[in-house]
Write a structure and sequence with these properties.
Number of helices: 13
Strand content: 15-25%
Oligomer: single chain
Largest sheet: 9 strands, mixed
Mean pLDDT: 96
Shape: globular
Helix content: 25-40%
């Protein structure tokens, strides 16, 4: 696998906390506005620049991408984002409660992405991929890092341990209480050794950021076609990523809520459920293991237990697949959860109280609390060239945008 150091942009001293923003895709329009309110330097004004445009502006219009470029150029012109003196990599640690994870920040090969050396486990949605592609192409910037992982037991484990808090380039606690610490790796000998180590790592996996990685690789193909003197060494051939050892990652459940019972009464719904799984009243808001789902309906929690799972492949045996194939599709009529507006998804970081709140409000009829998918399951599915059902994983904490910027 090929990686490369890069001479990118980063926040000026003392301004990392003011610039860093959540990824573009974990907030809706209203939340993006809230995130940027009172923060003129927030990178949210780049990744979601429509928050500054007239109400009703089409979010996928060229006007949005042009305004993003204006906001980005203001950060550079104002000295808020500064260019490194020489190519480098970084270590990036995040601490959330008692969980800590440290990854290596570098640029990865778009050719490796196209060759499936960087493996995927999700399909992209055309509109979202087109959006990130147009933003990246207009700015000629990777505005947010792709979240990659590699299997445990590689020398990446040692690389990410090589740091001291006193040497940190940035160290701040964000508004949500998550601590972000960054160290710069600039010694040419160390950088060369890291590149050599990754030459021996056979593959990486996209944990989070399928739309970003797909759009970045697409940009590389576009600029290659536009350049008659293409050599393969150009910066557009590489995209910004943070890669973590798999054992450091934490996956939270990705829960489901459905607006109605597809014409069934509660009693009819429970009767149909009892024919496809074991249903029992339970005070447990989260399942204690796989092949189980906690369900909230009409003020009561139930435990759904699935059997007859022997012989299923890696995808079909996932809890989200069992729920979809045995409950959501046949009983509730949710044929395609990617497009059906009767279903919504709630990241595990919001907890089960959010599920109760949504159902109690009357906006949704039933909620399903999932057991989290494991990193091993994700890798097994990617290794088999298969695709996970939508919204199978929720990684936390989220990588911040604006701390590292790769330009090309």
């Amino acid at each position: 696998m090929k990686i490369k150091s890069f001479k990118g942009l980063r926040p000026a001293k003392g301004e990392a906390a003011a610039i860093a923003s959540l990824p573009y895709d974990v907030v809706n329009f209203e939340q993006a506005c809230e995130q940027a309110e009172g923060k003129p330097l927030s990178f949210m004004r780049v990744v979601r620049s429509e928050i500054e445009l007239p109400k009703g502006t089409e979010p996928y219009s060229q006007a949005v991408y042009d305004h993003a470029r204006e906001n980005f150029e203001k950060l550079v012109a104002g000295g808020h984002l500064v260019r490194e003196d020489a190519p480098c990599m970084y270590l990036y640690r995040q601490v959330m409660g008692d969980h800590a994870q440290t990854g290596l920040v570098a640029t990865f090969s778009a050719a490796d992405y196209d060759a499936d050396v960087i493996k995927k486990h999700e399909k992209t949605r055309e509109a979202k991929e087109n959006d990130r592609y147009m933003l990246t192409r207009t700015l000629r910037v990777n505005t947010g890092p792709v979240f990659l992982t590699v299997k445990d037991g590689t020398e990446l484990d040692k690389i990410v341990e090589d740091k001291k808090d006193s040497d940190a380039l940035f160290d701040f606690v964000a508004d949500d209480g998550i601590r972000h610490t960054v160290w710069k790796i600039e010694d040419p000998a160390k950088l060369a050794k890291i590149v050599e180590i990754f030459d021996g790592i056979p593959c990486a996996y996209v944990a989070d950021g399928h739309h970003r990685s797909a759009s970045n690789a697409r940009c590389a193909r576009f600029f290659k076609a536009e350049n008659p003197n293409h050599t393969g060494d150009e910066d557009y051939n590489w995209f910004l990523s943070v890669v973590f050892p798999a054992g450091q990652l934490r996956i939270l459940p990705y829960n489901r809520v459905v607006r109605d019972l597809a014409g069934n009464t509660k009693e009819q719904f429970l009767e149909k459920l009892s024919k496809v799984c074991k249903v029992e009243k339970s005070g447990a808001k989260s399942p204690d293991g796989s092949k189980k789902v906690s369900m909230y309906i009409d003020g009561q929690w139930y435990l759904l237990s699935f059997d007859n799972t022997d012989g299923l492949d890696a995808v079909s045996s996932l809890d989200v697949a069992l729920l979809q194939d045995r409950v959501l599709a046949p009983i509730l009529g949710i044929g395609d959860p990617r497009t059906d507006e009767r279903i919504d998804f709630v990241g595990g970081i919001k907890g089960t109280d959010e599920l109760e709140k949504l159902v109690n409000s009357g906006k949704f009829a039933v909620a399903f609390s999932m057991y989290p998918t494991t990193t091993d399951q994700l890798m097994a599915i990617a290794d088999a060239g298969q695709i996970m059902p939508p919204k199978s994983t929720w990684f936390e904490p989220k990588l911040r945008s604006g701390l590292f910027v790769h330009t090309f």
